[in-house]
C-alpha cells in the first residue's frame, strides 16, 4: 500500500489555545484569530493552510 498523507486539523495543533465557551484561537499567523467558535469551525479554520501545523505537545504562544 502507498503512503497515506497526514491530515492536519486545528484541533491537533499545538498553536490552538482554548478561549472558553467553545472558542479556540490560533496564535501562529501573526495576530491571533478565532478558528473555532462555539465548537464550530470558522472561515479562518486552517488559516495557516497546514504549513505551520505542529503536533500538539506543550502549548507555547509568544
Overall mean pLDDT stands at 76
Helix content: under 10%
Shape: globular
Instruction: Give the N-terminus to C-terminus distance in angstroms.
Output: 41 Å
Q: What spatial order of strands do you see in the largest sheet?
A: 1-2-3-4
Q: Tally the helices: what do you get?
A: 0
Order of helices and strands: EEEE
Contiguous uncertain segments of 5+ residues: none
Q: From the helix content, strand content and strand pairing, which structural class follows? A: mainly beta
What portion of the residues fall into strands of 2 or more residues? 25-35%
Specify Rg, calculated over alpha carbons.
Answer: 12 Å
Q: Please outline the major beta sheet.
A: 4 strands, antiparallel
What does this structure look like?
The protein has strands at 16-20, 23-26, 33-37, 40-41. The chain is an all-beta fold and 62 residues long. The protein has a four-stranded antiparallel β-sheet, with no helix packed on it. The mean pLDDT is 76.
Amino acid at each position: 500500500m502507498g503512503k497515506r498523507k497526514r491530515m492536519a486539523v486545528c484541533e491537533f495543533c499545538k498553536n490552538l489555545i482554548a478561549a472558553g465557551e467553545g472558542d479556540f484561537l490560533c496564535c501562529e499567523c501573526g495576530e491571533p484569530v478565532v478558528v473555532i467558535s462555539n465548537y464550530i469551525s470558522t472561515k479562518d479554520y486552517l488559516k495557516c493552510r497546514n504549513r505551520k501545523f505542529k503536533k500538539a505537545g506543550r502549548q507555547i504562544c509568544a
